[in-house]
Write a structure and sequence with these properties.
Oligomer: single chain
Strand content: 25-35%
Number of helices: 10
Shape: elongated
Strand order of the largest sheet: 8-9-10-14-13-12-11
Largest sheet: 7 strands, antiparallel
Helix content: 10-25%
Structural class: alpha+beta
Radius of gyration: 22 Å
Number of strands: 15
Distance between the termini: 21 Å
Order of helices and strands: HEHHHEEHEEHEEEEEHEEEEHHEH
Length: 346
Amino acid sequence: MRKLLSLRMIAWTLTLCLLAGCAATAGATAAQPSDFDALKPLMDLVATAAMSAGDEPLVIGDADSTLNSAFVAAFFNNGVAADPSLGITADLLSGTEQQAAYLAKVFAAKTAPEVIAPTDPINGHIGFQPVTVNAGTDSDLQIIGELYWGAKAMSQMTDADYADIRWLDRAVFSFRADANATFGYLLTGFSVGSELDIEEAMQNYTDSILVEYINTALGFSVLYPSVFTDDMLVEDGDGISAKLPDDSLSFFVKRAPNSANANLTDYVSVIANGITNAKATLNEAFSSATVTYNTEDGFTVFNVYIITDKYIYQAELSYRKELASTYQMYTAYLENSFAVDAVSVG
């Protein structure tokens, strides 16, 4: 039974409360994230500054707002070590006129430049992975996607780096085309987390990338990538599976009897120890565990396990390693959404 439904779990509701929309782009035309690759270094830096400048992520507004001084300091301090295409140098920390000139060609928001005390950049890299784009007819642009922390930008990652990505939040950037702007667009908005409260845009984004599957007979539910169409789905008495025609991506969810009375910790340890370089992680909050590994034929395999007295539940997503920048984010969705109904725990 395949259904698109509102999401049920408290934890998953929190995950989904991470997206903002822009009503002005409701009638937007289609565009691809790759069309705006030149903006990626800027979006990464803005995300880094907004996420690290305070206890909570900062919101960046339009021309009616003023940039937070902590954000500006984090922006320039991290910018010194960021992508060279941004053109940020150490002299901008003390040159308030240079700061003002730089910010005016990047942000629509007002600025109040001041001398910035040098600090070290953050450990690692906070980045933004664009997923969908709404390009409005009035030169407005909205880019929606996922924030992550990693050792470096995704474009520079090795297979080992991808294994350590942490997906942080959903986020939305808003831009307006401007011929005088450094990157051809002025940034008119950025928000993340609890600030993202436009329900329709949030649901549209969710529906564009994910499908919720509920199997009442076997007692589990999960979100899977919407790239799998109905004709690809195969259901049987054990669960559901699907794969793309070129075999580059596949997933399955199944239930098996817990005939040996296995517990989660021991079961996952046995599996991980039997696979070369497998990484096992216990998630006590969700009473689940994950096992991730790479295969000799070039795939990354991500498994989530939930074990009850009666059953062993397993959800797996497998993709070719060279497609990690597209599909790795879905491992977080798989883990956070995979749930067992109380009825099946028995």
